[in-house]
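Box S2. Input/output pair 1.
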Amino acid sequence: MRKFTFIAGAALLTMTGPLHAETKWSLFTPFATNDKPTELYRAFASDVAEATKGDLVIEVFSAGELPYKNTDVLKALATNQVQIADLGLGPVAGDVPELTVFGLPFICTSTDQFYAAIKEALPIFNARLEDKFKVQALAGWTMPPQQVWLRDGVEGIGDLKGRKVRTWNKIQVEMLELLGASGVAITPAEVIPALQRGVVDGAITAVIPAYDWKFYEVADYGYMLNFTMTDQLIAVNQSAFDALSPETKDALTKTAEAWEGKFREAIDAAAATAADKLTAAGMTLVTPSSDDFATAQETTKPIWQAWADANGDIAKELLDKVSAACAD
C-alpha cells in the first residue's frame, strides 16, 4: 500500500510538474493613492505578474499606506523593507547629492530632452546606487516640467522679483534668489492654506499636481518656465532582484523598460488634460518669451558648475553627459 501511494504521488508530480511558489514583493510610491503615477504603478505590477506568469507578484503601496516619506525611499530599498520602489533622486539628495543632476535649473526642460538624457545618466546612477546602497534602477521616467504658480499676474521673468515662492529643495531656493525672488520651505499640506492667506505669493510644482491640488482656487497664474524635470526611477533592492530566477529577472527588466514609454505617454496625456482643466477653471498659463527663457537660463547657470564642483567626479560626469543630451 505504501509503495502504491509513493508511485501514485510520483506519477502525480510528473503529470502536474513541480510545486510552484510565487515571489511576493512590495512596491512603494510616495505619490497619493489616487494620483496618476500610483494608478500607473498598479498597471505596471499587473503587467509584471503577466510577464512572469505569476512568478513575481507585486503589491503597490502609496503614500500613507506604509510609514515612509519620499526622503525614506532609498533607505527602505537598501534595507529590503520594500523590494521595488518609485525612487526620486531629488528627495534623497542628502544620501546621493552627486546624482541630483536633473534638479539643476534649465538643464532639461522638455520630456524629449529628459528621455534622451536618462539613457546617458542611468548607467552612472546605477554604478553609484549599487556600490553604496545595493540598489539598481531598471528604468526612469519623469513628471511634467516644474512651473511657478502665482496668486497675481506675471508677464515676464522680471515679475518674479520680490515674490515669495514655496520651494521643495535647496537648488530651487538658489534659482529663485538669482531671479530676485525668495524661496519658502513649507510642507505639501500647508501649500494651499499658505497661498490662500498670502503667506506665499506662489508655489513650484508640475501641472498635474497643480490641478489635483486645486491651485485654481488660490492662484490665478501659471508661469510655464519648464525649468526642471523630476527623475523618477523604477528601482529594486539588488539582493531581492538577484534572488529571482533568470527568466523572471529578464521579464521584470523588459517590463520596466517598456513602462518607460508607457509612463511617458500617460503622463504627457495627463499633463495636457490638466493644463486644459486649469485654463477652463479660470487660470492664465503664461509661456515665457524666448528672451525671458534665455535670460533665466543664463542667470541660473552658475548653479550647474557650483553643484558639480561641490559633488566630485561623478557629478561632473553627469553634468557633461546630461547637459549635452539635453542641448541636442
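Box S3. Input/output pair 2.
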Amino acid sequence: MPFSHQVPSSNNLLDDLFVAVSATCVTGLSTVDTPNYWSPFGLFIIMVLIQIGGLGVMTLATAIGASLLQNLSLNTKLKTSAEVRGNGIFNIRAAVFGIIKTSLLFELAGAIILTARFMIRYHYDPLRALWHGVFHSVSSFNNAGFALYSDNLMGFHDDPFILIPLSLLTIIGGLGFPVLVQLRKYWRIPRRWSMGVKLVLVGTAVLLPLGTLAIAGMEWNNPHTLGAMDPATKILNSFAQSAATRTSGFNNIDMAHLHPATLMIIDVLMYIGGGPAGTAGGIKITTFAVLFFIALTEIRGEGAVNVFGKRLDRGVHREAITLVLLSVALIFCSTFVLMVLTNFTTDQVIFEVVSAFATVGLSTGITAALPEAAKIALIILMILGRVGPITVAAALAHRRKPVLYELPKERPIIG
C-alpha cells in the first residue's frame, strides 16, 4: 500500500514482495534501504511479519483457534505438532501457548534493556527509544536481522550494551523451543535432557567460540572490518558477528570487505544454523551433529551410532542424509541460476544464496543490485529454506510405512 512507503510513488511491487517474504521467513535480506524506504506503518508490518514467521504460521493459527474454539481439529494438531517438533498431539495447546509466552517474555526483557540504552546513551526521546527497542528485540529473538539503520548495527560496533543483548536474544531464539522448555523444567538435572537438547547445547557451545576465533583471526588486521578497533572491541564484534551468523543476519562489521576465507567460514556457519523448532534457519545443529556422529562411527568401525550414552534411531540417519543432500542440491542449483543471471563473483553469489536458504540475511551488498529474475529466485529460495527443512523432516518422520519384506543385500564400492 502507498502509505507503507515514505515516498508512495517510489514503491516497487517486486521489492515489496521480496521484503515481505524475507520478513515472514525471518531472513533479513532486503532490496531496499529499510529505514529510508518504509514508513512507520510499513516498518510495523515488517515487525508483525517477523513475529508471525518466528512463531510459525501453524503455531499462531493453533493459538487463535484454541482461543476461539473449545476443540482443535485432529488435522490442525498434527500439523502443529510437526511444526513445533512435538512428540504427540495431546498437549499441543499447552505447548503452543508455552512457546508464545516464552517468546514474548524474552522479547520484553530485550526491549526493556535496549530502550533504556537508547535513552541513556543516545538520548532518544522515550517513544523513539521504545520503538527501536521493541523492533530490534523482536528482530533479534526471531533471528530476522532487520534493523532500523542503513548500516544495520555497524554504528554500534563499540557499544556492548547493544551488541551483547542482541547477541543473547539471537542465541536464545536460535536454540529452539524444545531446548528452552527442557531447560526450564530440568536445568539442574542434565541427565534428564534429551539427546536433541544436548546436541544443540554442545553444538552451540562449540560453534560460537569457533566462529568468534575464526572471524577474529581472519579479520584482526583488516582495516575495513576489525583492523581499526582496539583488542576488546575486536573480540566483542567477532563474538556478535559469530552469534548473528547463526542465523539472525545482523551485521556489525562490513560484509563487503571481508576476506574471502572469512566469507567461506560464515557460509558454513550459516548453512549449519541453529536448533530445530525455533527461530533459526539452516539445516540445524542436530542434523549436522547426527552426520558427524555417523561419520565418526564409520571411521571407528562400530555398528550402532551412539550419542551421549544412547543409540541413535536408524531412521534419523536417513532423515539427516536426505535433508543435507536436498539442501546441497538446492544451493547448487540456485548458485548456478544467479551466476547465469548476474556478473558478481562466485564468493558473493554463494554467500547470498546460502544466506537466503539458511534464512540468515547477511549480504555482501549485492541484493539491491540483482536483476528481477534473480530476486524472484531468492524469494523462492527463502521460502524453500524456511519451510523446506521442516516439511521434509516432518514428512520423513510421520509417513513411515512398515516394510513386510527385505530384498537381497549387496554392497557397491564406495570411494
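Caption for Box S3: The chain has one domain: 2-398. Residues 2-398 form one domain.
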